[in-house]
Design a protein that fits this description.
This protein has one domain: Glycoside hydrolase/deacetylase (TIM Barrel), CATH 3.20.20. The chain is of the alpha/beta class. Helix 6 links the parallel strand 4 and strand 5. 47% of the residues lie in helices and 14% in strands. The protein is globular and about 60 Å long. Bound molecules: zinc ion. Zinc ion (ZN) binds next to loops.
Amino acid sequence: MPLTSKGFPLFLTFDLDAETMWTARDPAYANRPILMSQGAYGWKVGTGRILDLLDRYGIKSTFFVPGLVIDQREALIEEILRRGHELAHHSYSHAWILSLTPEQEREEMERGWQSIKRVSGKAPRGWRSPAAEISPITMPMLVEYGFDYSSNFFDDDSPYLHTVDGRETKLVELPFRWVLDDAPFFQYSIVLPGRTMQAPSALLEAWKSEFDVLHAEDRMMMVGMHPQIIGQPSRLKVLEAFIEYALGHSGVWIGRCDEMVDDMRPGLERARAEAGR
Ligand SMILES: [Zn+2]
């Protein structure tokens, strides 16, 4: 049985990190304009190209955006919202959580939350960590802020409900894995020694194989991408080919995280109640 009423859930999500992908590693990178321009490509070129592709297929998706990028690029964020996509929380400055004090982490949460509330008029419903790390206060804070989903953990191919501090919650985890991320394939920079680029076809091969197994097993597929990476021509062609491939199967739902979570959560709660009996 598929997890949702509309079939196999395929999430195509975009982390619009822009320049924060670099300044979060080292604030001094702000003084390296050419390095920063790699991030600028995400908002100047990549996002628009992605929005046009999604429109061509009538796909609504989720963009995880740091609050700082929302504040700096408000017109672009409004365009993302105008085209029907969801805006989700991705910290404020993309600061790596393990380097923060609890007070600083809370400030990142609050400021990012306020940026989304201000631009969209609504509270964010999902959260994804910058740099794929959390601290002991992160999960309780997600519950406190009333988030509906997290997309962070690598431990499953199916969604599940989090237990936080020993308490069962309604917080849905939408897990992913590095093979479902564009950055390990393509992120290249002179400040990242050892990183090489792979052929775009490598990504297509990996994602098609992942899709085949996950679809056959009635699980889910969470793809995480970055406009500054996947928005480049050769990679976007691969994303389009992957969309075509997925839509060539029956019963595939490519949609926003919030809508798919609303659809699948009653089933997850039922399964948890039955397992607890
Ligand atoms: Zn990010």
